[in-house]
Amino acid sequence: GSVVASYPYDDSPTHKPTGVYSKSADDEVFRYLAKAYASNHPIMRTGKPNCPGEEEETFQDGITNGAQWYDVEGGMQDYNYVWANCFEITLELSCCKYPPSSELQQEWENNRDSLLAFLEKV
User: Fold this and answer.
1) Mean pLDDT computed over 100-111
2) Are 92 and 6 in contact (CB under 8 A)?
3) Which InterPro entries match (predicted)?
4) Of 12, 26, 54, 91, which has the most beta carbons under 10 Å away?
């Protein structure tokens, strides 16, 4: 896990494991929506999720193009965009895939304003 808003494309023509910006035709819209979410999240907006084992990983403005972060072939986000004209971003909300229930209230607090801002934009 991480704390970042990722947007299409997750796959790239070169299929290099990382570092390839794979721009979609609607790149500006995706960046706008991802940034709307990230800029309202207290951790995501810093661009420094500080996840254990990945402390040096950073994301400018708390967002990333999927393939630039790491290439994923056949992902749902890209499939829905290409074949169903459905605009999706992927929200990585925690370094921990399964946070304990004692942390869920804080996760809600971290994401409430981001969710509302995102809904307003779409």
Assistant:
1) 96
2) yes
3) Peptidase_M14, Peptidase_M14_domain
4) 12
Rounded-to-integer distance, Cα 56 and Cα 17, Å: 18
pLDDT at 1 (0 to 100) = 85
Rounded Cα distance, 38 and 60, in Å: 10
65 has which bridge partners? 7
Pairing between strand 63-65 and 2-7?
A: parallel
| Bridge partners, residue 64, by sequence | 6
Q: Which of 92, 103, 107, 109 is catalytic?
A: 92
| 3-state percent breakdown (helix, strand, coil) of the chain, nearest 5 | 45, 10, 45
Ordered by start, the domain boundaries in the chain are 4-120
Architecture of domain 4-120: 3-Layer(aba) Sandwich (3.40)
For residue 16, the 8-state DSSP code is -
CB 79 within 8 A of CB 18: no
